[in-house]
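Q: Here's a chain of 321 amino acids. Please give me its 3D structure as tokens.
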Amino acid sequence: MESALYGPEGFYRRPEGPAGHFRTSVHASPLFASAVARLLVATAEALDTDEIALVDVGAGRGELLTGVLAAVPEGLAVQPYAVERAARPPGLDPRVEWTDRPPAGVRGLLFANEWLDNVPVDVAETGPDGTVRYVLVGPDGTERPGAPVDGPDAAWLARWWPMTEPGARAEIGRTRDEAWAAAVATLDRGLAVAVDYAHVRGDRPLFGTLTGFRDGREVRPVPDGGCDITAHVALDACAAVDALESASGGAAFVLSQREALHRLGVSGERPPLSLATTDPASYVRALATAGQAAELTARGGLGDFGWLLRPVGTALRDWAA
């Protein structure tokens, strides 16, 4: 998975970028970037500063940063960082610092939209005899059982994704927990947010979620660099990694995207019909905006994404109360 996504011929190094194959919330509507801009402002207010960093982890080709920079109010100085393994795209705002890892010691907002689902994981499957084994996969996608899962991986499964039925599969999320903890640790003060497909311990899918995407369609996850390889994230496990509350910050918590965006002013409420008579052009614009908001917050769709929020040295806990 690591090689197929990030190697020299990996999927995320392809010239068309991920937007050439699938839509995220960033691509669905500029309302998403505007909401992140409002969250950035709230973070700056909590830090009592008019100079703030914005770290976009898994930045793609800089689409989210571009949208946020266009939406932030005057008077707030933003230092944007794009964390991405692919090369810097041409024409990107020169203020954006392009890097392959989150900068250390920054104060501000670290935002990771659909990043953790592409942090490589191992897959485990329970055999007919009840033994949980790693799933080995060849370059053409052919699978076979490997060695029994043991050590820290077995401990992670026992705590977060118990497997009892023969044929049951799981993605071992320990690598995601560690990646998230390392990203949070780069913040001196501020807020870290991870947004992703998610599930929780009481509702894990029986056969896992590993899949591929290419050209807008779900495909078999063949690790040859020709498709995205992704798996939903156990955000509850990620949240528990750094769950101890600090004296000046707060513990991690999880909201649905629907709830988070509503709190950031994104609503799918339709404009009053009377506006169509008094100002038809404004009505059409408001109706389009409501449609975009509805897509971002839809049940059974983008609205069901999880938002994992971790304040660091701030009082942003009140924002989610």
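Q: Can you summarize the key feature?
A: The radius of gyration is 21 Å.
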